Amino acid sequence: MARNTGNYTAVYGFPESADAARRLAQALEIPCHIAELHRFPDGESLVRLPEPVERAIVYRSLDRPNDKLVELTLAASVLRRQGAADLCLVAPYMAYMRQDAVFRPGEPVSQTVVGDWLGRCFDRFVCVEPHLHRTHTLDEVFVGRPSAALSGAAPIAGHLRGNGVAAGTVIVGPDEESAPLVEAVAGPLGLTGIVGRKERRGDRDVTVVLPPDAPIHGRPVVIVDDVISSGETIFSCARAARMLGASRVQVYGVHALFSDIVAERFVAEGLGSPLSCDGVPHPSNALSLSDLLADAIRSFANN
């Protein structure tokens, strides 16, 4: 007997994340179709979707989001025209969430704009660590649309457990925003969790300060964060942990957005290669989100 899929009958993916879309479809035991994309010389996109279905899951992470947002809108229009009555967007990385208020005159509230835009195209949403700050839930972003904001903690904890994490390991987050992730990783493993304080003066000018009495001396440290992009936050956090006597430092990120140059710097800093979840395709991907996403999709059938 097929497993409960929330009554969805197919997953639609895009070329850059086709493998992850197929893994999700496999977890749900339903077919997967990959969109065809064509880019015209003037930069416009053309989207072709095969095999119309009544209830579809559209899978795409919104890193480097601008072209992807337009293409998702076009894809949703095709599926609606072909008769889809329910569209679920699975966007492990959701863009434009950080600008949730007007910080300086003349700025948009990008979170509201993108939430309204996508809310007109899709009926349900599943995201992972959507980088919410003053907004407490995804329901406030996609008003009137059922949504699930998932934690990346379970895949990280599972990977640590599977690799025999040492009993004295300390899980460290760089700032208070990482506290829920730290707690959700450390708790099930019976480990100590520590959260630092981040001082940001610019996109690449960051200092992380850890509590001076943190029980780190002589113990291994695992730094966890939702997003790794410039790497500056992690580098500063690792330096702070070493100043407190960490025996070694390992890094996990839910979403890897960093370049090859930053990856080389991780190695040069003695941190090795960070490990990330596969929501954003990246060479550092080592943790699958497919089971986590599939469980969230199935839960929609019970609500």
UniProtKB/TrEMBL annotation:
Transmembrane spans:
none
Ranges for domain Phosphoribosyltransferase come to 169-252
What's the protein here called? Ribose-phosphate diphosphokinase
Q: Which UniProt keywords apply?
A: Kinase, Nucleotide biosynthesis, Transferase
Tell me the protein family, please: Belongs to the ribose-phosphate pyrophosphokinase family.
Q: Under which main EC class is this enzyme filed?
A: transferase
Q: What lineage, starting at the top, does this entry show?
A: Bacteria, Pseudomonadati, Pseudomonadota, Alphaproteobacteria, Rhodospirillales
Q: What organism does this protein naturally occur in?
A: Azospirillum lipoferum
Please give the biological process terms from Gene Ontology that the record holds. Answer: 5-phosphoribose 1-diphosphate biosynthetic process; purine nucleotide biosynthetic process
Q: Output the Pfam families linked to this UniProt entry.
A: Pribosyltran, Pribosyltran_N
